[in-house]
């Protein structure tokens, strides 16, 4: 299996090295590091392409969202994810609008980091639950943090019918699909909502106001 290439860009040596060590504990990732925006761009140019770039917002040569956008546009940067101890919600949303693929706070459990990276690599946008108010219009397929997710249009449609109490056969008929396809959607819905079954998914949907 091809390993995901991750570039960790942070000017704090202890944080950067600890992060790289945790990521490399599994065989899924290959990790490189950089200690400045300039070094990040050099690494992308010379050692890319990367699948994910974890970009610290507070490095000395960072200039906010414009620096993020510059990195996003670089060939070989892959998915650029903000990585910071504290990032204002409006800054994160601006960065998403410029193509960033999420925000990982430095205080998140390191053990959860590989899962977050896999979600980003699969095409999702990762955000802390505290930032999941109105979903950002970043042109991305989903927003996930733990048990909170923004579902695709079809998954939302299926979930609404589940919440209405309809069986798979009727859901398949109403969505012009098959029962097998409905079951596949339900597996993905349960995964995104971090629940075990359709009943729990319906309860979670009501709780989060997704349907």
From TrEMBL:
Pfam family, one: Response_reg
SMART domains hit by this protein: HTH_LUXR, REC
PTM sites of type 4-aspartylphosphate: 56
SUPFAM superfamilies linked to this entry: C-terminal effector domain of the bipartite response regulators, CheY-like
Record keywords: DNA-binding, Phosphoprotein
CDD domains: LuxR_C_like, REC_NarL-like
InterPro entries to which the protein is assigned, alphabetical: CheY-like_superfamily, EvgA-like, NreC/VraR/RcsB-like_REC, Sig_transdc_resp-reg_C-effctor, Sig_transdc_resp-reg_receiver, Tscrpt_reg_LuxR_C, WH-like_DNA-bd_sf
Keyword field contains Metal-binding: no
GO MF term (any one): DNA binding
A Gene Ontology BP annotation from the UniProt entry: phosphorelay signal transduction system
Residues in HTH luxR-type domain copies: 144-209
Signal listed as a keyword: no
Domain Response regulatory: 5-121
Protein name, as recorded: DNA-binding response regulator
Source organism (scientific name): Rhodobacter xanthinilyticus
